Amino acid sequence: MLKRHILTAVAAVFSMLIVFGCWILTNELLNRQHLGLMNTVHTVSVMEPPEAELGAEPAKVTLSTQEIANILKVWQSSQTQHYHDPYDGQLTMEEAIKAANSGLSHFCESGVLPKELLESDFTQTNAFLFDVQAPIVVPPEGLPASNPAYSFWSVSVSNRGVSILLTLNAYTGQIWWAEIRLITQTLDFNSTNILDLLEEYEAYLGLSDSGSLNSNSDYATKSYENNHIGIIVYKKTGESGHYELLNFSLNQNVS
C-alpha cells in the first residue's frame, strides 16, 4: 500500500517537472523569436504608394464629333436603358458625383449661372449608371466589353428650393444634358443670358467649329460638323412670370 502511494507521488512530481520544463522551453523559444524580430525590424522597407493612389484626378479623355454623334444617336433611340455597375474605363459613382459638382461649379463661377446655386444646401444626392447597349455581363473570350462611352451617369441633387438633374457621359465625365428647376422664388434665371451660357457650354465641351446659330431671348441652338451634333439652350417661365427652368444639352442633328 505504501509502495503504491510512493509511486503515485513520484509520478505526480515527474509530471509537474515535465509541464514546468515545457513551459520554460516555450518561453525561451518565444523570447528568442521576439529578439529576432526586434533585431531585424529596422531592415523592413515601406513602399511609397503610387501617385494614382493618392487621390490624383483621373486622366481626361475626349471624343471626336463623329463619336459624339454616334453615341447621341443611340442615346436618343428607343432602346431600353438598363442600370449596371461601371465597366472598365468608366467613372465610378464617387467620380461621377465629383464631376457633376465640378461642372456645375464651373458654370456658376464663370457667371453664366447664378452663383447662389453653389450656396444651396442640397439635402438629396442620387447617381445611377445606365447603358442602352445590350447588357454583356461576361463578354465572350476575345471580345471586348461594351463600349464605355455609350453609358451615362444620371446625377441629381435637390433641396426644397432647387432640383438639378445632370446627365454625364460615363467615359469623359462631361455634362451632356442639364436641367435646373427652381421650386421657390429665392432664385431665378431672369438675368441668365442664353447666348453667354451657350458659349460657355461650347467651351466646356471643347467645341470650336463656327456652325450655324439661331437664338432669341429664351432659346438658342448651334450646330457643328454639318449639323451632326449641336447645342440647345433654353429657359422657361413659371406661373409667377419668372424664369424657373433652365436646360442646356448636346443633341444630334440640330438645325
Q: Explain this structure to me?
A:
There is one protein chain. By secondary structure, this protein is α+β, with helices and mostly antiparallel strands. Helix content is 31%, strand content 24%. The chain has a 9-stranded antiparallel beta sheet. Strand 7 and strand 8 form a beta hairpin. It starts with a helix and ends with a strand.
| N-to-C SSE string, H for helix and E for strand | HHEHEEEEHEEEE
SS-based structural class? alpha+beta
- The end-to-end span amounts to 118 Å
Radius of gyration: 33 Å
The total of helices stands at 4
What can be said about the biggest beta sheet?
9 strands, antiparallel
Principal-axes geometry comes out as globular
Helix coverage percent of residues?
25-40%
Instruction: Please state how the strands of the largest beta sheet are arranged side by side.
Output: 1-2-3-4-5-9-8-7-6
How much of the polypeptide forms β-strand, as a percent range? 15-25%
Features:
alpha+beta; nine-stranded antiparallel sheet; 4 helices; 9 strands
How would you summarize the topology of this molecule?
Elements lengths: L1 H39 L24 H11 L6 E2 L9 H17 L14 E8 L19 E8 L3 E8 L5 E8 L11 H12 L7 E3 L3 E6 L4 E9 L5 E10 L3
Antiparallel strand pairs: 1-2, 2-3, 3-4, 4-5, 5-9, 6-7, 7-8, 8-9
